[in-house]
DNA sequence: GAGTGGTCTAGACCACACA
DNA sequence: GTGTGGTCTAGACCACTCT
């Protein structure tokens, strides 16, 4: 046996991936138990477990107690997306970041927004529209609702100076959120703010964040035409 | 001390998240060492480590050897995206899945595609255009290039019967990939295939997959107008 | 040099899902 | 019941990076 032991979980992971890619382990088939692999690889079962969990997280293995571990038939590819923090993204590219508030006023949201945010009767809302720019060119137009009943201190914030996003990150903790990506044609307002033609295809992010069961904020961001959001598989 | 010990890593994680959300631990500040927390929580250091790693993966903590663990100043939100497998997504919604190949022929890709795929001189390519539908209504129009030098067996595949994606999943392993999301206006061809007006905003996914350093396939998918891709934070 | 997180080990017990 | 993965423990050593 000239075979060297695999003494760390990355090595085990690499070997597991190799066996999947080269079809030594066929999709749908059971692979050996952790115990068997630990023996074969000459390491502890916990090390094998760590490696298999990582591969399972990536969507290539399906694990169930008692049933064992099998190679995924339909490897749902799970991509990890870093939601961009615009200031960082812009400054990281060597551009000058700019922020400009358009409006900031209490207002009653349309029914669709109220439903999404599961607003109670009597909740009041702050609407903030703003543009963020790179080297003076508009980059993102943002339309945001903040639930003042959840975050009362937002009423005193000066959103002409600080972006709502940065203020909220500092002052309004949230427990979870939902995010959706889509494409929309620029309407007159979006076209004007982003300086594109009406009807141009715009990449849109909708986000709602919650603190436990109370909606904190709902925001729709319109990205400059041509914007791409990238990641790796 | 009515305090009960935290005897599993999820409980530790919950307590850590609580301290971050309630600002007991302030962004930018160091938190206690794993050893100290293990003592406080009455569990093993490995358990604390597991919990802190999970929170760190979520982007809320930044950990460095020797420097310690601190609460992230700019919590880059990392979302886990499940790249949709269309057949599953459509059938999961209770619709009838359909696949229809439009063309499948060897062809020379435009320069941009060749560059993206880092094609060598002499590489030959198969182009496959297809439409996938839900209950007969077009859902996705797909334009794909397959590198026949990397995957020679694809030349014999019958893409009028099986979708290129499913064939590749079964027959062409890949090691990694890149994916990008954007918005485009429908051109004449896209509009015709998706039965939408020209210029309609279309959600687009571009994907390139690699087997080691050789490009396997490059695909652009145009989604029906109004499509949203959703996930949680 | 020294302190922190990263990982491995060996053993143990538990939870779950299958027969 | 029984076998599998999921997790915890206590201890140990290592790798990195800061001073």
Features of the shown structure:
elongated, Arc Repressor Mutant, subunit A, DNA-binding, about 230 residues, Chorismate lyase
Please characterize this protein's 3D structure.
2 copies of one chain form a homodimer. With 233 residues, chain A is of the alpha+beta class. Chain A has 2 domains: 9-71, Arc Repressor Mutant, subunit A, CATH 1.10.10; 86-223, Chorismate lyase-like (Chorismate lyase). Chain A has helices spanning 9-21, 34-41, 45-57, 86-92, 111-116, 164-171, 188-194; strands at residues 61-64, 68-71, 78-82, 97-106, 125-134, 137-147, 176-185, 201-211, 214-223, 229-232. A 6-stranded antiparallel β-sheet of chain A has the order 4-5-6-9-8-7. In chain A, a hairpin with a 2-residue loop joins strand 8 (201-211) and strand 9. The longest helix of chain A has 13 residues, at 9-21. The two termini of chain A are 35 Å apart. The mean pLDDT of chain A is 88. At the A-B interface, helix 1, strand 3, strand 7, strand 8 and strand 10 of A face helix 1, strand 3, strand 7, strand 8 and strand 10 of B. Strand 7 (176-185) of chain A pairs antiparallel with strand 10 of chain B. The structure holds a DNA duplex (19 and 19 nucleotides).
